[in-house]
Amino acid sequence: MMYLEHALAAIVFQAIIGCSTGRWWTGAALASGYFIGREIAQAEYRWIEMFGAGLRANMPWWAPFDRRVWLTLDQYVDWIGPVVTTSGLAAFMSRK
Fold first, then answer.
1. Residue 30 — very low, low, confident or very high, per pLDDT cuts 50/70/90?
2. How many domains is the chain built from?
3. 81 and 4 in contact (C-beta within 8 Å)?
4. Segment (H or E) for 66
5. Predicted TM-score (pTM) of this structure
6. Contact call for residues 43 and 59 (beta carbons, < 8 A)
7. CB-based contacts of 25: which residues, under 8 Å, 6+ apart?
8. Which residue, of 22, 42, 70, 85, is most buried by count of CB atoms within 10 Å of its CB?
9. From the centroid of its chain, how far is CA 54?
10. Is the pLDDT of residue 34 over 70?
């Protein structure tokens, strides 16, 4: 259920930016970017633990994109949820 918390946090952050500046797509990009970055960082740590002998120096640039470290559906949903919800809100608010 963490994905609901991520989506809600992203919407709140987006709403703060959108209400204060009127730039809902900017809010969507920043909120989604945070959660995308968070999941990429966690994928880096998983790669280092699984294949890098515990050393960041052993990690190639492409390591967080290695499909072998994306193990569960939750890892995808934790960044897709905020992207979908903030994009939907931005599209809705842009039509108003």
1. very high
2. 1
3. yes
4. none
5. 0.90
6. no
7. 90, 94
8. 85
9. 24
10. yes
Q: In 3D, which of 52, 51, 46 has the Cα closest to residue 72?
A: 46
Which residues, including other chains, have CB under 8 Å from residue 14's CB and lie 6 or more apart?
Answer: 24, 27, 28, 30, 31, 86, 89, 90
Q: Provide mean pLDDT across the span 51-59.
A: 97
Other Cβ atoms closer than 10 A to 62: 8
C-alpha distances in angstroms, 20 versus 1, 17, 43, 90, 96? 29, 5, 34, 14, 16
Interval 32-41 mean pLDDT: 97
Q: Please give the pLDDT value at position 4.
A: 86
Question: Residue 1's pLDDT band (boundaries 50, 70, 90)?
Answer: low
Q: Which burial class, exposed, middle or buried, applies to 43 when counting CB atoms under 10 A from its CB (0-12, 13-18, 19+)?
A: buried
